[in-house]
Specification:
Oligomer: single chain
CATH architecture: Beta Barrel
Mean pLDDT: 90
Distance between the termini: 55 Å
Number of domains: 1
Number of strands: 21
CATH class: Mainly Beta
Order of helices and strands: HEEEEEEEEEEHEEEEEEEEEEE
Radius of gyration: 22 Å
Shape: globular
Largest sheet: 18 strands, antiparallel, barrel
Number of helices: 2
Low-confidence stretches: 1-36
Strand content: over 45%
Length: 417
C-alpha cells in the first residue's frame, strides 16, 4: 500500500479546527431552526419579469486602482492601473412544470501598461429540473472561458476553459427525506503555449473528470437540510498520464438557505485519493468545505474553510493539499455606510514523487484587507478596498512575493436590505 501524510506537523491542528467547526454548527442548529420561517421562492424576489422569465441584472466595476505586483514576482515587482468591468444576471424560467435557474456573467479586465494582460471572459451556469410526484429529474451545466488566474498556485493569467455537464434524479422516500443520484463529467483545457515557470500548462493539467454521487438529504426545517454525500471520481489526463487518479469522498454536513439566520453550507468528511502511477503518492485524510455567514444585528460574520487535494503544475510535485481559512467581518455603521475587514491563510503542502527525494515543501499565502462602502439608493454600492498579499515559499524562493492592491468598486443592481 502506498500512502503519504499531508503535512505531518499541521494535520492534527487542522482536524481539531474542522471538528470544532462541525460541532459548533450542530450546537447552533436548534437556534437556527427556531428562527426560520417559510420565505418566498428566489424567483419571486427577482427585480424584473418578462413573461415566464424572472431576472435580476447586475453591473459591476471592480479593482479600479493600482496593483503593485501585477505578475506576483519575487523580485522587481511591476505596477499598473487595473480595472474589471462587466454585467451579470441571475434568471429563473418556468415552462409548465419545468423550472430553470441560471447565472451568467461577462467581464473585461483592463491593464493600462501591460496590454497583453487585457482579456474578456465569461462564466455561465444553468440547472433545469422537473418536479414530479416523488421523482425530480434534473440536468445542469457550466461553461467558463477566462484568462484569470486559474487556482491557488498559478500566478500567470492565461486562457483556460472549463465545461461541466451533469444529470441526476431526486427520489423522495419520506416527507422530508430525499435520495439523490447524480453523474457528472467535466473538462479542463488550457491554451496551447501557456507556460508557467517552464511548464506547459496544457501538457501538465488538461484533463477529463467523471464523478458519481449518491446522497441522502433530510430537511430539518424549510431552510436547513442535513446531507450525507458519497462521491466516486476519476481523473484522466490528456498527456500527463502519470497524474491519473481515482478517489472517493464521504461528506456529511448541512446546507443552509440564504434566507436562514446562518446561511451557506458546512461539510467535513474524508477523502481517499489513489494515484495510478507507483511513483506518485496517495492521500487519505480529512477534507472540508465550509462557506457560512451569520448576521448579528448590524454585524455580519463570514467564514470559509477549504481542505482538499489539488493538482499542481509542478513536474516533481504533481499535487498539493490546500488548507484555506478565510474570515470576514462587515459592520454596518449607518443606514448607508459599512466597513469590512478580512484575512485569509492558505497552506499548500506539496506532495513529491517517490523518486524526487528531498524534504517536504509547504508554501503559505497570506491576505489581509479592508474597506469602506456606501450604498446609494437601494440598488447601488460604491466601495474602496485595500488588500495586501504575501506568499512565503522557503524551498522555492522564486515563488514568494508581496503586493498591494488598492482600488475601488461600483456595483449596480443588487437590492440592499
Amino acid at each position: 500500500m502506498r500512502f503519504v501524510r499531508a503535512s505531518t506537523e499541521t494535520v492534527p491542528a487542522h482536524r481539531t479546527l474542522l471538528v470544532w467547526i462541525l460541532a459548533c454548527a450542530c450546537h447552533a442548529l436548534p437556534c437556527v431552526a427556531a428562527a426560520q420561517d417559510p420565505a418566498p421562492e428566489p424567483a419571486d424576489l427577482a427585480r424584473y419579469r418578462f413573461g415566464p422569465i424572472h431576472f435580476t441584472p447586475v453591473l459591476q466595476i471592480r479593482n479600479i486602482g493600482v496593483d503593485t505586483n501585477v505578475f506576483n514576482q519575487a523580485e522587481e515587482p511591476e505596477q499598473d492601473f487595473t480595472a474589471s468591468i462587466g454585467p451579470a444576471a441571475d434568471y429563473w424560467v418556468r415552462l409548465g412544470r419545468v423550472r430553470v435557474h441560471g447565472k451568467t456573467s461577462l467581464d473585461y479586465n483592463y491593464f493600462q501598461e501591460f496590454k497583453t494582460q487585457r482579456s474578456f471572459g465569461t462564466e455561465n451556469e444553468v440547472r433545469a429540473e422537473l418536479p414530479l410526484n416523488r421523482l425530480q429529474p434534473f440536468v445542469h451545466g457550466m461553461y467558463v472561458n477566462t484568462s484569470r488566474r486559474p487556482d491557488f498556485e498559478i500566478d500567470v493569467r492565461t486562457r483556460h476553459r472549463t465545461t461541466r455537464l451533469g444529470a441526476g434524479v431526486d427520489v423522495r422516500a419520506l416527507s422530508r427525506t430525499v435520495f439523490r443520484l447524480e453523474g457528472e463529467e467535466s473538462r479542463l483545457r488550457f491554451n496551447e503555449g501557456a507556460v508557467f515557470f517552464g511548464t506547459n500548462l496544457a501538457d501538465a493539467l488538461d484533463r477529463r473528470s467523471r464523478s458519481y454521487r449518491v446522497s441522502v438529504r433530510h430537511a430539518l426545517t424549510p431552510l436547513t437540510t442535513f446531507v450525507v454525500q458519497t462521491e466516486q471520481q476519476e481523473d484522466r489526463f490528456d498527456i500527463s498520464f502519470d497524474r491519473n487518479a481515482d478517489s472517493y469522498r464521504v461528506l456529511p454536513g448541512f446546507e443552509l438557505d440564504p434566507r436562514a439566520l446562518i446561511a451557506g453550507r458546512a461539510f467535513v468528511g474524508y477523502r481517499s485519493f489513489t494515484t495510478l502511477d507507483p511513483d506518485v503518492p496517495d492521500f487519505d485524510g480529512v477534507v472540508a468545505l465550509v462557506e457560512a455567514e451569520y448576521t448579528l444585528r448590524a454585524t455580519k460574520f463570514g467564514l470559509a474553510v477549504q481542505r482538499d487535494a489539488w493538482y499542481s503544475y509542478e513536474l516533481e510535485e504533481p499535487f498539493f493539499i490546500v488548507t484555506e481559512l478565510t474570515l470576514q467581518v462587515t459592520q454596518k455603521v449607518t443606514t448607508n455606510w459599512d466597513t469590512v475587514g478580512r484575512m485569509s491563510r492558505q497552506l499548500l503542502a506539496y506532495q513529491q514523487r517517490q523518486s524526487a527525494g528531498g524534504s517536504e515543501r509547504t508554501d503559505t499565502v497570506w491576505a489581509f484587507g479592508g474597506g469602506v462602502g456606501r450604498r446609494v439608493g437601494r440598488t447601488a454600492r460604491i466601495g474602496i478596498n485595500v488588500d495586501h498579499l504575501r506568499r512565503e515559499s522557503p524551498r522555492a524562493p522564486a515563488r514568494g512575493y508581496n503586493g498591494w492592491r488598492i482600488g475601488g468598486s461600483v456595483t449596480y443592481g443588487v437590492q440592499g436590505s
